[in-house]
Predict the structure.
Amino acid sequence: MKHELNDGRNAILNGKTAIGIELGSTRIKTVLIGADNAPIASGSHDWENSYINNIWTYSLEDIWKGVQSSYQEMVKDVRDKFGVSLKTTGAIGFSGMMHGYMVFDKEGNLLTHFRTWRNTITAQASEELTKLFNYPIPQRWSIAHLYQAILNNEEHVSNIDFMTTLAGFIHWKLTGEKVLGVGEASGVFPIDLDTKDFNSSMINQFNEATTNRNFSWKLQNILPKVLVSGTEAGRLTEEGAKLLDVTGELQAGIPFCPPEGDAGTGMVATNSVAVRTGNVSAGTSVFAMVVLEKELSKVYSEIDLVTTPDANLVAMVHSNNCTSDYDAWMGIFAEAVKTLGFDVKKPQLYDTLLGAALQGDPDCGGLLAYGYISGEHITHFEEGRPMVVRSSNSKFNLANFIRVNLFTSLGALKTGLDILFQKEAVKVDGITGHGGFFKTKEVGQKIMAAAFNVPVSVMKTAGEGGAWGIALLASYMINRESSQSLEDFLKQNVFGESQGETVQPDSKDVDGFNEFMKRYTKGLGIERAAINFLN
């Protein structure tokens, strides 16, 4: 223990560390990693978005307050553990929730409220740009927000000098550099995989489509510069150091890696940047990222295309609903147990009931459920009605009931992934899972392995999240050997041979899930009727 403390203290004093800070939707987390790339200190700050003038947003004041608070919590953790002050570090990286819309004038003033990824106000722009580029442009993307503002004739558009994301904004203010990592940039505007830069022909198409507006700017002039992982993306300025560390102890001149999005840092934190690997983040919502060997044959509205931080093409399938409905059922069971006079702690309740799902019939005994708390774009629903449906001869017991709720939480995601696996013949060697779906040992893994018919691993480190992922990208920039790829750096310098605990798909479970999916797809009309008649 003393040896570890000395190693950590020496790394801190000699700047042999790296800092990663990620701004998620409910928490800002800061992680300090040591010379071995393992976390040695951390801090966090909880925050919530606001709904102002029909826009989901965070204020600039809240952004800086949150970043400074999270950073100070990490500094305090360093002082408490190692008895030293943090004055420098080897490198820093910032990450944030992807997409959204932040635009500034020539003086650097924010022109309109920061519009986050959560806003679904760009349907027209998304549809028109997808047709124009013949490339999927989801509503969340920055370019969809810009084009919708143009379609809405919003006054601020003519004054735009610079457009960026949340991570790009913080990076700019701390270093003076208007840049984005390629993974983050791939959620702003489509990337040309050959140049590893924004697609120039699509930029020209956009400029032509807006030429009658007579703006003083062209798209290429207001976009950030795109950088791949491993590239130095600027250095902490004197002004930036005071902005990040309000105590004034942090020294200027520290190199920054390119700012990245939460999808990219999630891939890094789960060692899923190589082709034929994938990761699934499963909690309130669920999304899967699969690194592709080649481009898809056509555009699918169900599939977003982004890149890894080192510019490999990634197919992303995002479903709005995952654990929320079965969490609600767990609440009902907790009430029942309490009413009977028993005191059962939440972890025991979840582990016991979710574990029962493994005793159910492979196809859930003929039961059907939809956990649509909200709408689901993959199956084309604007709103949701959670429900459980059975016929008179279904095998209705506890094991099957829990099992069908777990199955259906992956139903929409499976619909999207089947496009990749069946229509596009995409190959995946394994998937790494992280999030609340995997908390009960083996259960989430077995269900997901059945759904996707691939091995599913869960790493002990997956809980460290995207802040650790961006810290690793900062470390990669300063510690990699000259020709070492990101994939090799993660394998050789971070994860070694460790792939965590892996569960192989069981053929009976795979067949059972496929049988359930036939019922799920056929029964979508029931969900539609519920929406139509239950207002």
